Design the sequence.
């Protein structure tokens, strides 16, 4: 299934994503979550390469927030690719 890493900004609550959607077997997702949380993003696993633990958020009100990894969202369900916001 096609999934993308999702990040939630603690300051404004906005959901963000980064990188391209990755094709990951559904049964591999729980293990993948654990590996991201453990910060093993450079372990040579191509699924993890673009999933840092947090990314900066340009909040709509002009503030700068930090968005933390929240999980993987299906990318193919809504036919979306890439970012949730421009
Ligand atoms: Zn924000």
Sequence:
């Amino acid at each position: 299934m096609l999934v993308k890493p999702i990040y939630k900004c603690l300051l404004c609550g906005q959901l963000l994503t980064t990188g391209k959607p990755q094709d990951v077997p559904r049964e591999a997702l729980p293990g993948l979550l654990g590996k991201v949380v453990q910060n093993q993003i450079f372990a040579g696993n191509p699924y993890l390469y673009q999933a840092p633990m947090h990314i900066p958020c340009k909040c709509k009100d002009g503030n700068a927030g930090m968005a933390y990894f929240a999980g993987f969202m299906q990318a193919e369900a809504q036919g979306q690719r890439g970012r949730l916001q421009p």
In short: Residues 79-83 have pLDDT under 50 and may be disordered. Helices lie at 29-37. The pocket of zinc ion is lined by residues 9, 11-12, 14, 57, 59, 65 (CB under 6 Å). The chain has one domain: 2-74.
